[in-house]
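In the previous chapter we treated chains in isolation. Here, by contrast, the input contains two separate entities that must be folded as one system, with a combined length of 752 residues.
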Amino acid sequence: MDASIGVAHCFAMDSRPSAPKRPLVSVVDDDESVRESLPDLLREFGFDASSFSSAEEFLASDILGQTKCLILDIAMPGMTGLDLQQELRQRRESIPIIFITAQKDPVSRERALKQGAVQFLYKPFSDTALLDALNSAVSAK
Amino acid sequence: MNFGNVGLAELVHPRQPDMEAKVKDPAQEIKRLQRCINDLVSLLALPALWKSKEPSQIVHTLFDVLIRMLRLDFAYGRFKDPTGSGFLQIVRISDSSELNVSQREIGKTMNDLFGGDGQKPFSPIRSKFGDQDISLFAVPLGLEREIGIIVVGCERDGFPVDVESLLLGVAANQVAIGLQEAHLLNEQRRVANELDQRVAQRTLELANANEELRKEIGERKKIEDRLRESEASLAQAQYLSRTGSFSWKVANDEIAWSEQLYRIFDFEPGTPVTIERINSRVHPDDLAAMIERVARARGSGGAFEYEHRLLMPDGSVKYLMAIAQGHPSAEGKLGYMGAVQDVTQRRSSEEALAKARSELANVARMTSLGVLTASIAHEVNQPLSGIITNASTCLRMLSADPPNVEGACETARRTIRDGHRASDVVTRLRTLYSKKEPALESMDLNETVREVMALLWTEIQKHRVTLRQEFAEDLPAALGDRIQLQQVILNLIRNAADAMSAVDDRPRELLVRTERADGNRVRLSVRDSGVGITPQAADKIFEAFYTTKTDGMGIGLSVSRSIIEAHRGRLWATRNDGPGTTFSFTIPCGAEGAADVENHFNAEERKADAA
């Protein structure tokens, strides 16, 4: 774990977005420890964070419209991450998606990227990798 | 000789007028008397002609002679039917007679005149026949007319004269004798016939009896042959199956053995067998039980099933299985009959098979290392990911201005917690896959299952499975290796979840149940509502390397079964009444002797084999 690089990076670069309002990043993962730890990290990055335990919950919420980036698990009961990606496309929602998954799944990775995902990360991922992906997602918009 | 009513005196001294006329001419008289003698001789010669003739033939012959001899007009005879109870009538009319009467008319008239039992006088009667006057003269046959009667008719006036009536008398006598003889002959013939018939009948009966006897002998021979064959077959069967038979009379300890049993014990066939001799072969470790069993058998008379070993002179050990059935003997005393089978081969091959199976399972476990590491990696990634995220956050919080110490503490705490989780998982997984004999100890099955379910909770949730549990509250402690059993339970629950992964039209229900089972055991069942298995697959799925998953290694169920069997338990699968399958295993409860466990295991196996 390159923690020192992470800190240096933090000091060296103002990672806070220039926009006055902190962009909202939504985390959708059925894994409780992810929902527990990731939002804190995102806030340290300078984002606003909200978390959902299922894709259905996210779709049902009114956060959808405000979400600037989606961090999405693949394997979930009910609607999977890939299902949600397809659903959003159908709804003409162009929220950038970063996929995170515990399982090495090259098939899903290829499909997700083909469908326009910004990044596909395997757990455990470093905070810098995540930050890079987030910056790409937000600046691409 | 019967001369009818004509006495000898009258013969010698005939009626006067005739005598006077005749005396005038002595020469003629001599001629007449000569003719009479000649006729008498002819009459006396008749019986020779009549020999073996039928009565009617006799009478006809007589009538021929009489009609010619006496120049009769007709002759009528009525005599008893020798064959029946009626009468025969014969009428002969002379060819030269001028009588114009039919035979029937004559017969009828004679019957009227002389028939019945009336004592009619036998003197001549002059009667009219048509327009003729006929003299009728009746001559009885037999002393009391029992044979019959002859009536002759002649138109000559004065008929019959002396010699004529003499001749008629003699003729009557002769014919009577002839008829009697004929009758006797008939009787003789009849009796002879009857005798012949009886002899023939008897001969037939004897021939039949002989045939029957011959058949019976043939049958008996066949039966004896069959018996011999069957005895030979039995001996052969005993030899091939290594089974010997014995009988034991309790009162005098008389013991009889089949040849095969001698072979099993390695005693000289035919030598006497005693309890002491048997005990000299019984394995010392089994001897006490044997002695006790024999003592019990003396008193009880039921059925016995038992096993014991033999220690042979060359030091080798034989395994025997025996059954014996008590029964009252012919004298009402107690006796046993039984069979003993040498199962040494089977036992050693069973052991070899079990050893090979467990070796194979171990090999399978080793080669699944790739899967194992992937499995471990997956299980561990979850907490690892948490650690990295939380630690990163911790550092950022500390380097913020001002430092977010409270937040840093929280993230540090989570980090430590996740670190422990990861360690736990690794430890569990390592022991889960280690090759060890089950360390049997008293354990709580419910608690064991709960730990597994805690480990799998997240994974099960991902599969959108409803997990239900029904744990028996009074479940007794089981005898098992907790870690190894958890491996099995893990495998079963994972399989159940996988089985339902394609199910969308009904709830995915996974039920884990614990309960008491027969024979001092506990049972765990994992029931899913998945796709189910066919009856043919029910046993196949436990084979090593059998899998329905494209990336599966197929070691889960075969390893699980070998673990359960090492616990002296049983693992099996059954189709549900509804959709899906139920996997169950039973293991013995704690605080049980190994022997009892083994016996129950054998009984269960036999039950399963029979089912």
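Residues 438-611 of chain B form a domain with the Heat Shock Protein 90 fold (CATH 3.30.565.10). Chain B has 17 helices and 17 strands. Compare these points with the single-chain example from earlier in the chapter.
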